[in-house]
Design goal:
By secondary structure, the protein is α+β, with helices and mostly antiparallel strands. The chain is built from three helices and six strands; from the N terminus they run E-E-H-H-E-E-E-E-H. The chain has a six-stranded mixed sheet with strand order 3-2-1-4-5-6.
Length: about 110
C-alpha cells in the first residue's frame, strides 16, 4: 500500500499536478525542502516549478514508477491537500495559507 498524495503547482495559466505513490508521509517536509531549493527562482515561475518537481523526484528521476505529472489531481489522495501558487508565492496546506518563507520555516 502506498502513501499516495498530490502536489498542486499553480501559475497564472493553470496547474501542474505531481502525483506521488509513496510520498505522503513526509509531504510537508519534503515540499518545504523542495521550495527552499527553488528559492533563487521564486520570481521565475517556470524555473521554480521545475526545480520543485526535480527536487521532489530526484531519487526516482529515471524510474518508471513512483511519480506522475498531470494537469489534474490523480490517484487517491490520502493526505491533506497542498497547493502552491507561484504567482502569489503562497502555499495552501491543512486549511492554512502560508507565504513561501513561512512554509519553509514551519516545516
Amino acid at each position: 500500500m502506498g502513501a499516495r498524495t498530490n502536489f498542486e503547482l499553480q501559475d497564472d495559466k493553470g496547474s501542474v499536478w505531481l502525483y506521488s505513490h509513496s510520498g505522503g508521509d513526509d509531504k510537508s517536509m519534503d515540499f518545504a525542502k523542495a521550495l527552499e531549493h527553488a528559492r533563487p527562482r521564486w520570481g521565475d515561475t517556470p524555473y521554480a516549478i521545475r526545480m520543485v518537481v526535480s527536487h521532489l523526484i530526484q531519487d526516482r528521476l529515471l524510474d518508471d514508477t513512483g511519480y506522475g505529472l498531470t494537469s489534474y489531481e490523480a490517484g487517491e489522495e490520502n493526505y491533506d491537500a497542498l497547493s502552491a501558487n507561484f504567482v502569489t508565492n503562497t502555499v495552501n496546506y491543512e486549511q492554512d495559507v502560508f507565504t513561501f518563507d513561512e512554509f519553509v520555516s514551519k516545516f
